[in-house]
Specification:
252 residues; alpha+beta; six-stranded antiparallel barrel; four-stranded antiparallel β-sheet
Length: 252
């Protein structure tokens, strides 16, 4: 079972269908919903309903039931926190949502909250740190590629970058002011030369200051280096820092 990026759904499905062997059936499940139960209390909550799911480690999955509702649950998420993603048929979605929200420690949040968490966790988002012009190697996702494999989209360029390195890399930035630095802001060095751009940026509630990720020239991305973001014609000082901004809390 694969959950693809929504923006890339059509081209991902086309690619999968064209490369699967004749022994495989491809079945879309548009009648399913997905819940992400995330945070330090997630395991306690899920344990009330499924001991099987609560016993999972990070990136493991199982078929189970929650109060008689059949679910596919993986111990994963895109927040940097421990948590679970729960796939369920649409006919049970409202029932499951009400069941989870009845727990005192569970609150409903939207994609804005998820986006803040994934930024603090230094996680890439398609359309920001990744797109058809930014490769996974430039985005710092070299670990995705298994050695010896060469049959995947963009293999020629990606394999070359894995061997020789890239001119640009993804880096973390801590903003030295209260002004958030947003997606698309130009980054310059102390000689006013453009050396990259911000891919994601927001205020970090956990750190109490704005942070950002940027695609920078490799030789400008040294930890501790002071650069400048252009925000409404102002130069805002930023400091290159390691990622993630907040340590991951996955259950391994």
């Amino acid at each position: 079972m694969i959950i693809v990026n929504a923006a890339c759904k059509d081209k991902d499905f086309t690619y999968l269908k064209s490369h699967l062997s004749g022994r495989c059936d491809f079945k879309e499940l548009p009648d399913h919903a997905l819940f992400a139960l995330q945070g330090p209390e997630a395991a306690t909550v899920i344990g009330k309903f499924s001991a099987h799911a609560a016993a999972l480690s990070f990136m493991q999955a199982c078929e189970t039931e929650i109060n008689g509702i059949p679910c596919n649950i993986s111990r994963s998420g895109y927040t940097g926190e421990d948590g679970f993603e729960i796939s369920v048929a649409n006919q049970y979605a409202e029932q499951l949502a009400c069941l989870l929200l009845a727990e005192d420690v569970v609150e409903a949040v939207g994609l804005g909250a998820r986006d803040t968490l994934r930024l603090e966790a230094g996680l890439c988002l398609y359309g920001h740190e990744l797109n058809e012009a930014i490769t996974p190697v430039e985005a710092g996702l070299q670990w995705l590629f298994k050695k010896g494999h060469s049959k995947f989209p963009g293999a020629d360029k990606i394999l070359n970058q894995l061997h020789l390195g890239t001119e640009k890399i993804r880096a973390g930035l801590v903003v030295e002011s209260k002004i958030p630095v947003r997606d698309g802001a130009i980054i310059i060095n102390n000689e006013d030369r453009v050396i990259g751009h911000v891919t994601s940026g927001s205020f970090s509630p956990s750190l109490g200051k704005p942070v950002a990720m940027a695609l920078l020239e490799r030789n400008s991305a040294n930890l501790g280096n002071t650069l400048y973001a252009i925000v409404r014609d102002q130069k805002i000082a930023v400091t290159v820092t390691k990622l993630p901004f907040i340590p991951h809390r996955y259950h391994r």
